[in-house]
Amino acid sequence: MEALDLSGVEPDAPLFDPAAFRLTDQEAELTDLARRIGKGRFADRAAGIDRDARFPTENYRDMHAAGLLGICVPEAEGGRGAGFRAYMLTAAEIGRYCGATALTWNMHVCSCLWTGPLSDDLEMGTEDRAVHRQRRSVHYRRILDDGAIYAQPFSEGGAAAAGVVPFATNAARVDGGWRINGKKIFASLSGHADFYGVLCGEVREGERPSRRDTMYIAVPATADGVRVVGDWDPLGMRGTVSRTLLLEDVFVPDDAQLMPRGVYYQAASRWPHMFMTLSPTYMGIAQAAYDFTVAYLRGEVPGLPPVKRRMYPTKQLGVAQMRLMLEQTKALWFQAITEAGPDPSKEQVLRAYMAQYTVMENANEICQLAIRTCGGQSMLKSLPLERLYRDSRCGSLMLPWTAEICLDRVGREALYEPGEKDDD
Question: For the whole model, what pTM was predicted?
């Protein structure tokens, strides 16, 4: 595929200034690329994607051309070799221009992040690691060479996505591979992904299902028994196309495994920051709402009359409230993603929960302030605030770390050490 030419795009100011936040050269380069592709390609498409509730296929073609589909594929495999923080910062920049693209890109990137830099931090036997690297190379080549898109359906309508109970979707051992049965709801990219990275429990005769046996298997969208059903007409994040995925006696071969059995459980236990990867989208939305408000009050929104409204004290107060909340959110979130790694301390995990909660709630609060500050015209669908507000409201509902789950865990884990319980 021909390389994407973004040389003529003048990027917006960075969400996280490379000097102020001491970004690496790689992080500065990737976030600059994200701002260029977001402003030059994604921003003008976002309203149509939202209006029609259609998957941003053209954005994925551009990301493939820019090398962003393989952002977390190791450099030795031909990818960008980005680690957790580099990806999170890049995704936040993309979220400024199209929330649905950033949110679905998360589902795709996790197939590389989990199988790549994250898995490299975990314990595996020598033979298991060799087989894992051989298998993941197959998936990486599909992404890099063919632009293959990987989805990652979590939700089943219960507590499995939050790590409380085993997944009901199951994989049974058969000759040469696995037979998968189950259902995933709110399965983003449904009908548009080339492969579904399905989290499922292994079925073993005479044994109860266990979270420790969770498997992560790439199911081809074209496999017999794979169906996508239901409509998709939600409040926000309409371009994710998160319909219901049905898996009925779907056979996949052994080499379809994205992780060896049990490694996902180890990752969820030892690398909990892996569940923060939905949050960059909303960090970007918060920045976008602030950016629009400043441009609107300065009379600098393209397509609108150059009328200045910045001289009114009420407008100035609204902007001050937004900026204060935005900077507080950025500071906590940046600290949390910087601390991400295997075996974090209790305080680091608590900070991750609080950062997740803060981003998801404050993004919507900032959008509310933006609408109130800009006034009645901001409700029009011809301007982006109405869409940003709807998209931002969805963040607190996102498993596996919803706002309620984060609050529950912060309160409980702040008061109890591991293993502690109250006397009856």
Answer: 0.96
